[in-house]
């Protein structure tokens, strides 16, 4: 599986831990940045990851910023990107199975690496249920998206 990953300065440390964990398990990683803890603007990285996922060069995306809110908002501006801010395994499971989320977002301020690892495992291991009602809702979500 190809995973695009990105973070701003506040999410840099957690992104690096996640990246190493994913590489250890054989995922192909597209690290969209950032490359240090120097102050940066989160939309740059959200747009890169969302573009990769929506454009098909990545199967899933991972974004990290301080709260996860800004990354979610920026990524969801892209048609075909469905970014979900997840704080636990249950939300990650339903984000995939009911909402066909293709990007998971973490708030580094609120998520430890151990929690992120467990949540990410559920997210990457779950599949969209593709039931009629969920598929209909995804079509409606995608119909109102804009490409940035």
Q: Could you walk me through the main structural features you see in this protein, from its secondary elements to its overall organization?
A:
By secondary structure, the chain is α/β, with parallel strands linked by helices. It has a single domain, classed as Ribose 5-phosphate Isomerase B, Chain: A (3-Layer(aba) Sandwich). The chain has helices spanning 12-24, 42-55, 69-75, 89-97, 113-125, 132-143; strands spanning 2-7, 28-31, 60-65, 83-85, 103-107. Strand 4, helix 4 (89-97) and strand 5 form a beta-alpha-beta unit. Helix 2 (42-55) packs across helix 3 (69-75) and helix 4 runs parallel beside helix 5 (113-125). The protein is globular, with a radius of gyration of 14 Å. The relative contact order is 0.18.
Brief account:
With 148 residues, this protein is of the alpha/beta class. The protein has helices spanning 12-24, 42-55, 69-75, 89-97, 113-125, 132-143, and strands at residues 2-7, 28-31, 60-65, 83-85, 103-107.
CATH architecture: 3-Layer(aba) Sandwich
Q: How many structural domains can be distinguished in the coordinates?
A: 1
Q: What level of helicity do the residues show?
A: 40-55%
- CATH level 1 name: Alpha Beta
- Strand-pairing-aware structural class: alpha/beta
Note the overall shape.
Answer: globular
Radius of gyration: 14 Å
User: Distance N terminus to C terminus?
Assistant: 25 Å
CATH superfamily: Sugar-phosphate isomerase, RpiB/LacA/LacB
Strands of the widest sheet, in order across it, are 2-1-3-5-4
What's the number of extended β-strand segments?
5
| CATH topology (fold) name | Ribose 5-phosphate Isomerase B, Chain: A
Task: Give the averaged pLDDT, no decimals.
Answer: 94
Unreliable segments of 5+ consecutive residues: none
